[in-house]
Every structure is written in C-alpha cells, then in structure tokens.
Design goal:
13 strands; single chain; 46% helix; globular
C-alpha cells in the first residue's frame, strides 16, 4: 500500500486522522466487538473499594440529604421538639433524643461506611490533559528533513543515504515537527542550536500545553500545589519548572520538581511521583505534570551510524496533565489512575542501552547498544509480571503461576539428576519444562498506548502481547502524525483514542494501559479507568 499523503486541510486540524504507512485493513479484520469476555471473569476484576470511592460523592450527597430530611421530619412531626430535647440531653445525657430514630442511625452508619471506604482508596484523578499541536511552519516532509541534514555540511553521502533509508522505514509521516532553529536551514540560514534557540523552543511548547491544560480543567495557576516537569536532554538554569512558575505566576510555596535524563519513560515516572506527593496531602491537592523534549540542541553532527538514528526519529512535542486527589474532583475527572509500575534495569547492559556520548571526532549524540532489544524485553517482562496481578483475572493468573512452578520444579530436578550423573535425563527434563505463559492482557485492558519509539517497537509489542490491529492503531497513528515525541508520545496516543479512533471507541468504564521505555534502562506502565 502506498503511503497516504496529508491534504492541506488535514494538516491544520488537531490530531487529524491519518493512518500510518502500515495497512491496518490488510488481512482478516478483527473488530473490538469480536473480542468477548465472560461476565463472570470480569466480576473478578472489580475493586470494590474503588467503586465505593468513585461514587462516594454521590453516596455522601444522597445519604446526607436523606439524613437531614429525616431530622427535619422528626423535628416537625414527632412530639418532642428539638429545643426541649437539647435541654433534656443537657440535663440527662443518658436519655437519647427521640429524633434519632433507628432510620436516622442506619443512615448515619451508611455515611460513615462510605466515608471509610473512600478514605481507604485515596484515589488520584486525571482531570484532563493537553498536547502540543505544532504550527505549520514547523512541519517538514522526509525530503525536507534530508535537505536539512545536507545543509548542515557535516554528513557524508553514506550517512545521508543511511538516514534516508531509516526515514523511509520509520513509520513517520510527511508532516512532522522540527524546531524553527533547525528548519530555518531550509532557507539557507545557519542552524541555531544556541541556548537561546533551545529555550525559545521549550517556551513555545511548554507555555502552549500548560495554558491549554489549565483552561480545559478550569484550574487557576495559583491553585496548583505540585509541579513536575520532565525533559531528558535540555536542563537549563533556571530550570524548566522555574520557567513555568514565572510565566504563569504560580504560588511561592509550590512543590516543583525538574526530572532529566530519564528518556522516553519519564512521563509515567512523573505521574507516579505526582501521585505519591498528592497522596501524602491530607486535604488533597492539584498537580501539574509536564512532559516534553527539546530537539534544538540535540542534533548529531557526526557520521557514526550508531548516533544517526536520533536525527531521523525524534520530533517536537509535549503534553501537560492536571491531576487531583480531591474527592469532589472525581465527578468531573476524565480518568482515574488505577496502577503505576516502574521497573529499573540494574546491569551494565541496561545502563549502556541508551547512552549519551561523543563519537571519535568529539560530536555529541545518543547511541543505542546492540543489546537494547534484549534489555527492553527483560524490563517489559518484569514490568508486566508486576502489573499482572493487579489487573488480570484469575483465569489468566493461574496459568502464569502454574508455568512458573513447573519451570522451577524442572530446573531443580534437572540439577539433582545432573548431580546423580543422569545427564540425558536432565536434558530431557529441561526440554520438557513448560514455556513461559504470556497472559492475555486484552482480557483486562481495552486500549493500549505503546510508546511510539518506532515501527519496530510497536510491531514487537504487538506480536509479544498478541494484540489486534485496532489496539496498536493509536501508536502507529501518533508515530505517523507526530513522530517519536519522546515521553509525551503516549499522550498523543490517548488523545487519538478519545477523539479519533472508530475501530475501538473509548467508553466509560474502559481501561487504558500506557507502556513506555527509557534510558537507564527503564520500563514504566500505568493503567487508567475512563470515568
């Protein structure tokens, strides 16, 4: 199928529905309605404390109204008026006022039970979020990207040819965003990679998404209690947090955190940090999480292939999210955060998987090791193993447990056989050991936001998790429309799901899982409930 080009009208729309170069309609089409799960399996997924806390504002309002109505009825129609009973209680505390009938007592107990369950859950809500829509002057085609590379006057023909091949297979579209400091090279001007140009790009993205997020949630800047900003490769002084606080006039006692060097997984790390900070606030609060990456100072100017990939995949982008743990906000929130999991690789291979360094000529860039696929696979396996018990039904957890027990038993028995000299028996036992059971996350999750790190990343996760085409459609569409926007890519995917996707429309009660990878090496995930 030939790549689909964008019309001029579609480029002007926010998150226009443009399919990736992969043909979603190829082969047998599977619709989300074809994937059915027994209701008995779904009942096992219900978190009743979550149900109580989600609807606690409604329960408390109804119970409180009923409580006051019962008191008013008793005051009006029962023989002992309230005033006389008040003095009666003062005189004799043992005798109970007659207005506190059995119905009033039961209702009061119901209010206390609902309040108790709501306090146990300590929910964190996503009120809403906003993504950066780049202006048309920032958008360039593959041909223009290669021309920008040529205009740097530092790449040889072999490097230009290599970047051209990578671009053609990248899954990115013909209108992705580059910063004006680099795009101006198409007009014959020198590339501006200065600190001023970098700060200008950051201000354009950050100020836009923060303003839109505050407007969408009807939150004032001075109401924000916690600010978390993540940007891996641009860490100026004053920080990006200070930039936002100064621009929007936030409070002087705001808790602000600037995270750097954490790669494409940093957005969910920021979400988890904001969640923990919010849950420590006894009275509740509001948190603003901002995820972005600055491209201007990070163009690689050398000719080593290991560094050239960053010049072909990464694009401008950003997202701002407003979180709250105030119970009253549960009524107007868009999503509720159910789980967050973060897995950190600890070996040397994990540390070197994504590495900022200088090549032989002294040019700075990001290199990917040959072990990155293996490292990413291990981190993701550990992440999903941790997440699984929180979201999967027992019908999927039991086979996982049996497979682990079987492999453990076969491994230890083979060691005993080897110690006894039965080598052939030990080999047969290891061969007969059950394989790892990959649980079907589709039975617990309705939508997947897989980090748009590249077409190969999406293809690999689709295959390993046995996802359908409509599950990976948001990731492919975000990659095609925006490229790899680093940590903010999962929010472009969620925006696509809620605003554009028709093959698997988002509904209340659906679960959305976000998965991202980053340097270090890290794999992060989060599960949201659509409210």
């Amino acid at each position: 199928m030939a790549p689909r080009t964008e019309s001029s009208s579609s480029l002007n729309r926010s998150m226009s529905r443009v399919m990736s170069e992969s043909d979603f309609s190829a082969g047998e089409t599977v619709n989300h309605r074809d994937y059915k799960v027994r209701k008995s399996s779904l009942i096992g997924l219900i978190n009743w404390s979550h149900v109580m806390s989600t609807f606690s504002p409604y329960f408390l309002m109804v119970a409180s109204t009923l409580f006051m109505a019962q008191l008013a009825y008793n005051y009006a129609f029962l023989p002992n008026p309230v005033k006389s009973e008040f003095f009666k209680v003062m005189e004799d505390a043992i005798e109970e006022p007659s207005i506190f009938t059995a119905a009033v007592k039961v209702n009061a107990i119901a209010v206390l039970v609902v309040w108790y369950f709501a306090r146990m859950d300590n929910p964190v809500y996503l009120l809403d979020f906003a993504t950066f829509e780049p202006p048309s002057s920032w958008k360039v085609s593959h041909e223009q990207i290669l021309q920008m590379m040529k205009n740097q006057n530092c790449f040889n023909e072999e490097s230009l040819s290599f970047m051209g091949r990578i671009l053609s297979r990248s899954g990115t579209g013909q209108a992705t965003a580059w910063p004006p400091g680099i795009v101006q090279s198409l007009e014959g001007k020198p590339t501006d990679s200065s600190i001023e140009g970098s700060r200008k790009e950051a201000e354009t993205v950050l100020f836009d998404i923060v303003a839109k997020a505050l407007k969408k949630t009807n939150v004032k800047a001075k109401d924000i209690d916690i600010l978390v900003v993540n940007c891996s490769l641009f860490s100026p002084t004053p920080s990006l947090c200070a930039m936002i606080v100064s621009k929007f006039g936030m409070r002087g006692d705001i808790q602000s955190f600037n995270l750097g060097g954490m790669g494409c997984s940093a957005s969910l790390i920021s979400i988890d940090l904001a969640k923990q900070l919010l849950q420590k606030r006894s009275r509740g609060g509001l948190a603003l999480v901002v995820s972005t990456e600055t491209i201007t100072p990070n163009l690689y100017h050398g000719n080593e292939r290991g560094f050239l990939l960053q010049n072909t995949l990464f694009r401008c982008g950003g997202a701002a999210m407003v979180l709250s743990n105030r119970y009253a906000d549960g009524i107007r929130a868009s999503y509720k955060l159910l789980n967050t999991v973060r897995v950190q690789g600890t070996g040397q291979d994990a540390y070197n998987a994504v590495f900022e360094a200088q090549d032989k000529t002294g040019c700075r860039g990001i290199t990917l090791s040959k072990e990155i696929v293996k490292v990413a696979g291990k981190c993701m396996e550990r992440n999903l193993t941790t997440l699984g018990p929180h979201v999967l039904p027992l019908s999927e957890q039991v086979p996982v447990g049996l497979a682990l027990i079987g492999r453990f038993a076969c491994k230890n028995l083979s060691k005993l056989l080897l110690a006894g000299g039965f080598e052939s028996g030990a080999k047969k036992l290891l061969t007969a050991a059950p394989k790892h059971y990959v649980p079907d996350f589709k039975r617990a999750v309705d939508h997947f936001c897989i980090h748009a790190g590249g077409r190969a990343v999406i293809d690999g996760i689709e295959k390993n998790l046995k996802l359908e085409l409509f599950h990976t459609e948001p990731s492919r569409a975000a990659l095609y429309n925006y490229g790899n926007t680093s940590s903010s890519s999962i929010w472009y995917e969620l925006q696509y799901i809620q605003d554009q996707q028709k093959s698997n429309p988002l509904k209340k009660g659906h679960r959305v899982m976000q998965v991202a990878f980053g340097s270090g090496f890290k794999c992060t995930s989060a599960v949201w409930l659509k409210l």
